[in-house]
């Protein structure tokens, strides 16, 4: 399968730096912020954003992790169940400005599930969405507030985000699959 | 999110959580004898995530919305049944509970007919308890619903063993090389049998202890299984408990035994009750466990049953998380 690099480690770093600035600007500081990374690669991305925000604002922004397996809308049709990772949000999210963080934004279905999961945990003041890559093909009326890079794709392609903490390397690559398999990973 | 096309040969993109498919092989949960260590680990891990749900103010996730879970109990039960029902409700499944003593069974309906009726009513998962060993194995052939064995005769009680292993691991951090003494009425105990399979798969050293009359009568084959799995047998509780990391007590199942197995209850208490003195032979922070219901003052003294080392109530709480994990894993899987 042919692979092509879309973002290098430096590109990713710059995109995250910009997103961190945008988050602080939009929320007029970082006081009520909570970053919630979606399992699995959203979590290290959220941690990096929090570290950058700390440098900018000298505020420790709480970082949580969210697993959406129990909220998926396709569980009934899946014969193979996804592993359920831990949901761990260290603070009460009620009245907080939540920034959901994910690696790839695709159909929007997992963001829908994540919003349901968050609202089961409390009543945040707002939920915003930050993604490293937006690859299009939305199936729900959901948009991102902060985007690292817009990458037009075909459904036959697969976006692979690699994060040092999980994959030992930072990069975003695009892989064409000839099968046209429906690999959604938004 | 992704939709799985049809088969396991679909390439899994790296950025997705690994599907449990490669590990989980069951559409039914009948006993732990066909569970790999990896499968048990998967159940424990998912139970951990379920425990987080149980810690919330609103203990409910939409995972099994639209699924129907039927509990079919031919034997009395408080905690197992309530635990399965709560687990199903926490996952938003619809639940129906059938108490066989109050159902058409009393009008002469056979087990197979009852099962088919329940399937026709739309049960996706049937959680069943039966006094006959092997009944759930029959059920698997009668219906397409997933079957979870909630205890069959003297044979197996897999969800209990899994919650025991989960409880041990959450306290001691591991199961490998732990000495687990199971004391009491081994012969009539499905809990002991499932725990032997589960604990030995997880690397624990199991010691069974009880009067010879309460060890399985079919000794030859039983001893062979024990030997294969490194299970030892002690007649004296002191040797079984010595240096144990876990002491698991079993209830004397009076309802299953005819007289003659014990000289007297008093003698059993004298020789086998877990007392503070006997527990002091175990490791300092050894856990005291019991699948319940407890006959206080018979297999365990009251101060130990409610003492600092007892995790008996925690076992009950963990049961809900384990059963949520099992329901999650068997639900919907129509691949077999």
Structural class of chain B: alpha/beta
In N-to-C order, the SSE pattern of chain A is EHEHEEHEEEHE
Output the CATH topology of the domain at 10-70 and 89-153 in chain A: Rossmann fold
- The CATH H-level homologous superfamily of the largest domain in chain B: Aspartate/ornithine carbamoyltransferase
Write down the CATH class of the domain at 10-70 and 89-153 in chain A: Alpha Beta
The residue-averaged pLDDT of chain B reads 88
Report on the biggest sheet of chain B: 5 strands, parallel
Widest beta sheet: strand line-up of chain B? 7-6-5-8-9
Would you give an account of this structure?
The complex is a heterodimer of chains A (186) and B (336). By secondary structure, chain A is α/β, with parallel strands linked by helices. Chain A has a domain at 10-70 and 89-153: Rossmann fold, CATH 3.40.50.2020. Helix content of chain A is 27%, strand content 27%. Chain A has helices at 9-26, 42-57, 109-121, 164-167, and strands at residues 3-7, 33-38, 63-66, 97-105, 126-134, 146-150, 157-162, 171-176. In chain A, the strands form 2 sheets. Chain A has a 5-stranded parallel sheet with strand order 3-2-4-5-6. A 3-stranded antiparallel sheet of chain A has the order 1-8-7. Chain A starts with a strand and ends in a 10-residue tail after the last strand. By secondary structure, chain B is of the alpha/beta class. Chain B folds into 2 domains: 23-156 and 318-330, Aspartate/ornithine carbamoyltransferase (Rossmann fold); 158-311, Rossmann fold (3-Layer(aba) Sandwich), CATH 3.40.50. Chain B has helices spanning 37-54, 79-90, 111-120, 135-142, 158-172, 190-201, 219-228, 237-241, 265-272, 276-279, 302-305, 312-330; strands spanning 68-73, 94-99, 125-130, 146-152, 179-183, 205-209, 232-234, 246-249, 287-289. In chain B, helix 1 packs across helix 12 (312-330), helix 2 (79-90) crosses helix 12 and helix 5 packs across helix 12 (312-330). The longest helix of chain B has 19 residues, at 312-330. In chain B, 47% of the residues are buried.
